[in-house]
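RECORD TYPE: protein structure
NAME: MFS transporter, PPP family, 3-phenylpropionic acid transporter
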Amino acid sequence: MPYWSLYLEGRGFSYLQIATLMATIQLTKIFAPSLWGWLGDRTGLRVRLVRFGAVIGSLCFAGVFLEPGFYGLLLVMLLFTFFWNAILPLYEVITLRVLGRQKERYGRIRLWGSVGFIGGVAIIGGVLERVPITSLPWLLLPVFAGIAISAFLVPSERGEKKAPAPRGSLKAIVSHPAVVAFFAMNFLLQVSHGAYYTFFSIHLEQFGYSKLSIGLLWSLGVLAEIGLFLVMHRITRHFSVRQIAIGALMLTMVRWILIAEVTDVVSVLIFAQLLHAASYGALHVISVQYVQGFFGQHHHGQGQALYSGLTFGAGGAVGAWLSGFLVEGFNTSIAFWGGAIAMVFAVGITWRWLRPPPESTVT
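PREDICTED:
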């Protein structure tokens, strides 16, 4: 993600084309996780589905090496992300099922994805200082192959079984006012991240930052996320879901304003990246547990898929696309201001309607 927009820029695509291609990564999250989540709930074969998604997704990504034009690359990314986006929601469910009553340990497990991100960004950023950005797909292919191989090291269907007949109405859960507010909050959160995931690297490059510096700044945000994961179980003991969400959303708004206006001051930019602990870490942890609390065992897979699809998928795609128009018509700073405005609406919705799930393990 940190270097893909730079790769697309190096291939000669316009800002709007870059935004469209980056939106594709989120677009398939709207429907793909729901399909894979439904299959996982009905068959109980989540580990096998993860393996299938990792292998086929990696094969589809290889289409990048054909160097197709805009529409060809759009097709490749649609196919790749359709299978790739099956992996994480299924792993979330597998992890929480295995943890059982020890759900507070989720953050400590999830942080290893962040550790991998930091290592990958640092290594690839260092290599890209010496090779052209168009070499990026060759650097990514071994990573995808490694994930596909590691998926086969997870014990097959351990701790899993076919879900019993669902109890309660999924429609009733989804239409609950607190659940609607929860999805609206996260949708706007991901809309605000559109400029970040699509144009942050380009924004930094315009201010003279090197590719290695860009990678390190991305990694700093994830490092803050790791720190948050380690202490999140303590935070949830002292603050409610609503309090954590409102605080995190307000800090996210501050983060986008700082990136928009004070990019050239390194110390301020470092502080803005540390706020990633709030804009992603805190909100993601409480959201995963929130979904489990409201959707329960019988609809957990579909609930997790809806969370991924309606927020990361729809919100991320809309945010990336809108940011493309803002950058094309104005500049990257205005796109980050758009994200800050989205947070104003998210805070209002959360303040008015967000409530904790019944009998939830989240405080």
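COMMENT: DSSP finds 17 helices and no strands in the chain.
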